[in-house]
UniProtKB/TrEMBL annotation:
Gene: lagD
GO cellular component terms listed in the entry, alphabetical order: membrane
Top EC class, one word: hydrolase
Protein name listed in UniProt: Lactococcin-G-processing and transport ATP-binding protein LagD
Keywords, ordered alphabetically: ATP-binding, Hydrolase, Nucleotide-binding
Amino acid sequence: MVYQGEVAECGLACASMMLNTLGQNVTLSELRDKWGGGYGSSLNLLVSLLKSYGHEALPVKFDIASIQYLPTPCILHYGGNHYVYVYSQHGDFFQVLNPASGRLMISAEELAQSATGYALILDESLYKEKKKLWEGQKRQRLVG
């Protein structure tokens, strides 16, 4: 679990957690030094950040009603001005790592209530099966 040090560091904290999940021990401090953090992070900045560590990520807009098909792990735009790291799914529940408040397990319905419909998903063969389900749902790739 990586907690944000400042209000606008949620995106960097989520990127750090994703990189750690992918086997790269990258601290929030390292990301802050390299990518800044005081002004918040766009999905495009997070795509560039992950790419610099060798991971292809796709910013997507998705139908919130299809949130149960969200590939995990992913970074989810949440509550209008925040990012959370969706680590895993267990049935109808998601394990969410919120860099502002900690780890929680919430239902897909609860997650959908705060989701904005934007996410950053990995484009890697490791997540191929779940992506097949996801790609059958209505979504569109954001161009950036």
